[in-house]
């Protein structure tokens, strides 16, 4: 579970609820008309913008990855791949079958190496798997961003509809308050959905997309070097290029300490 996402959503909902309760009660902020307009309008606009297949893949995948954290960091992946290369050098490809690997994508690549598939087959399959996954994740962030863009617009439409209804019933003062409240609640719903849920989730998904692209490309390069029987030291040195500069220095210091001793 991504703690930052969960804490952010909980804090946002808590702050809004607290401010509402300080000035009245939650019932004042319930409007069926505003809810129908915002959710119905955003759904309709999303269906027009994107193919149904993209929505069916992107929305659940995006929601799942926005609230989950990757099992391994890039530094941990480098260390794990170097360890796997050490096993392959000592025990050969057959020794890889006994390894227990948590990352499904890495485990898939190691299985290809253990089964003796050639380099081109491994590269093509892993790259195709990576690209398909990133495409669906990109669809998810685009869909959430699109909902975040159109929700305030439908909130404004709801406000305009409510004002038209209010002005059309100026002769009946008892209807002015409810129509005005409904008009403002539409804007409130649209702004809340966009700025607390959809746009932050879209940004989080974009960051995860970039991170996953780096991680999976790192894994592909590591798997191919293991398949070509490269030494663990070479595997580590080549994969360190994916890490920030500070990790390069840490790795150099870590290697220098035993020599100094």
Descriptive notes:
- The protein is mainly alpha-helical and 261 residues long.
- It has a domain of 176 residues.
- 81% of the residues lie in helices and 0% in strands.
- The protein contains nine helices and no strands.
- Helix 3 packs across helix 6 and helix 4 runs antiparallel to helix 8.
- The longest helix has 55 residues.
- It is elongated and about 90 Å long.
- The two termini are 41 Å apart.
- The C terminus is likely disordered.
Task: Give me the secondary-structure topology.
Blueprint (H helix, E strand, L loop, with lengths): L2 H21 L8 H18 L2 H15 L7 H18 L12 H11 L4 H50 L4 H55 L4 H8 L5 H16 L1
Helix pairs in contact: 1-7, 2-6, 2-7, 3-6, 3-7, 4-7, 4-8, 5-7, 6-7, 7-8
Major sheet = none
Q: Structural class of the secondary elements?
A: mainly alpha
Identify the overall geometry: elongated
Q: Strand fraction band?
A: under 5%
Provide the low-confidence segments as ranges.
256-261
Percent helix, as a range, is over 70%
What's the tally of helices?
9
> Kindly, what is the distance between the CA atoms of the first and last residues, rounded to a whole number of angstroms?
41 Å
Secondary-structure element string:
HHHHHHHHH
Q: Write down the overall mean pLDDT.
A: 87
What value does the Rg take, in angstroms? 26 Å
Number of DSSP-assigned strands: 0
Q: Key terms for this structure?
A:
single chain; 261 residues; mainly alpha; 9 helices; 81% helix; elongated; disordered C terminus
Brief rundown of the structure:
This protein is 81% helix and 0% strand.
């Amino acid at each position: 579970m991504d703690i930052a996402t969960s804490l952010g959503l909980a804090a946002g909902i808590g702050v809004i609820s607290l401010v509402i309760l300080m000035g009245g009660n939650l019932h004042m902020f319930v409007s069926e008309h505003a809810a129908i307009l915002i959710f119905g309008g955003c759904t309709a606009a999303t269906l027009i913008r994107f193919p149904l297949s993209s929505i069916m893949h992107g929305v659940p995948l995006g929601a799942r990855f926005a609230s989950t954290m990757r099992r391994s960091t890039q530094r941990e992946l480098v260390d794990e791949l170097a360890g796997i290369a050490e096993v392959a050098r000592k025990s050969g490809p057959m020794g890889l079958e006994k390894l227990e690997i948590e990352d499904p994508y890495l485990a898939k690549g190691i299985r290809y190496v253990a089964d003796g598939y050639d380099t081109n087959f491994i590269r093509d399959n892993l790259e195709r798997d990576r690209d398909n996954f990133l495409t669906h994740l990109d669809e998810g962030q685009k869909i959430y961003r699109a909902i975040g863009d159109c929700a305030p617009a439908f909130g404004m439409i709801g406000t305009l509809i409510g004002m038209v209804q209010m002005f059309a019933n100026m002769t009946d003062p008892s209807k002015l308050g409810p129509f005005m409240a409904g008009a403002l609640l539409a804007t409130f719903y649209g702004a809340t959905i966009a700025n607390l849920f959809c746009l932050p989730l879209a940004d989080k998904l974009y960051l995860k997309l970039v991170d996953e692209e780096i991680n999976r490309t790192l894994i592909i390069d590591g798997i191919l070097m293991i398949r070509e029987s490269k030494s663990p030291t070479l595997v580590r040195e080549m994969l360190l290029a994916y890490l920030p500069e500070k990790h390069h220095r840490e790795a150099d210091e870590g290697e220098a300490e035993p020599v100094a001793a």
